[in-house]
Amino acid sequence: MVALFGSAELIATRQWGPLTERRVALPSGPEIEFGVVPQSWADIDPPDPGTVRVVHDGLQIIYSPDGLLRGLVGTATE
Fold it and tell me: Closest by alpha carbon to 18, among 41, 44, 34, 52?
C-alpha cells in the first residue's frame, strides 16, 4: 500500500487493536498517516470511544465501496 504514495518512505507501523497504522514520509517533507482495518471495525453500534475519537480527529475515507464508513461517520458524529 505504501507504493501508492510513490517514493514515500515507511517510517512507522503500529497496531491499535484491529487498526494497523502506517505512517509514511513524502520526499517533500509532509507525513501521511493512514489506518487499515477489517470491515468489522465499522460495524460497532454504537461505536466504541476509540473509534469515535478517530472519526472526530479527522477521518478521511479513501476507499469504502459499500459506504460502510460513511455510515460510521454519521453515527459517530451524532
Answer: 41
- Where are the chain's structural domains? 2-76
- Identify whether the C-beta of residue 24 lies closer than 8 Å to the C-beta of residue 36: no
Q: Per residue in 41-71, pLDDT tens?
A: 777 677 878 888 888 888 888 878 888 888 8
**Which residues fall within 8 angstroms of residue 37, CB to CB, at 6 or more apart?**
18, 19, 20
For 50, the grid coordinates are: 476509540
Measure the CA–CA gap between 51 and 31, rounded to whole angstroms.
Answer: 22
Q: What is the pTM of this model?
A: 0.64
